[in-house]
Design brief:
The protein is mainly alpha-helical and about 200 residues long. The protein folds into two domains: about 1-140, no CATH class; about 145-195. About 85% of the residues lie in helices and about 0% in strands. α1 (about 1-15) packs antiparallel against α2 (about 20-35). The mean pLDDT is about 85.
Length: about 200
């Protein structure tokens, strides 16, 4: 049963998510954490972190890890979990493949048409909104801490967030370097704190 639900959920995610992998994250979280409760918010956050660090598109990486974790949590079987990761990955890719085959056939012929240009103008703000939604969904107490319950963790998390934003926006520091430095700082900080 979980395989059919994974297939349907990730087909829907692949069909209706615009803006690439980051645009998909809020939809994936809504399906797997909120709607189906296959994963906790903390598990999903870990999956997003691993998906960002591994090679490949974040949306497909997330689908792979979510499929594996959801089936493993439901069945306890690693073999079935691998099948779950394949199901979710193929399901999230299939709509894009089919749509690209259809669109590529007609796009070059009609891409200057006013209706096609209007559709793309309408999609741009939606894509920005989906990406912003993904960022806001990751700003949870599990990730940032709480200003009242864990103030040190909260303020260190906020400082890391601001430092990463400033480094990328104003100093054009590589995101890979920022990830590595944040990982080293987090490891040292939490190692010293005994977490």
């Amino acid at each position: 049963m979980i395989f059919i639900e994974l297939l349907c959920s990730f087909l829907m995610i692949g069909l209706f998510s615009f803006g690439g992998g980051y645009g998909m994250l809020s939809v994936i979280q809504g399906e797997v954490v909120t709607r189906h409760a296959w994963l906790t918010a903390l598990e999903f956050t870990d999956i997003v972190a691993v998906s960002q660090m591994t090679p490949g598109p974040i949306g497909i990486n997330s689908a792979t890890y979510v499929g594996y974790t959801a089936v493993f949590n439901a069945t306890g079987s690693e073999a079935l979990a691998v099948l779950g990761s394949l199901t979710a990955s193929l399901a999230v890719m299939l709509p894009s493949i089919v749509l690209m085959l259809i669109v590529s056939r007609y796009f070059m012929k009609y891409y200057k048409h006013p209706n096609v240009e209007a559709v793309f103008r309408l999609l741009r703000p939606a894509v920005v909104g989906l990406i912003a939604s993904a960022a806001l969904l990751l700003m949870t107490e599990e990730n940032f801490g709480s200003p009242t319950e864990t103030p040190l963790q909260f303020w260190v998390s906020v400082a890391l967030f601001v430092a990463a934003f400033v480094a990328m926006k104003f100093f054009k520091v590589s995101p890979i370097l920022i990830l590595l430095l944040a990982g080293v700082f987090g490891g040292v900080f939490y190692g010293l704190m005994g977490c």
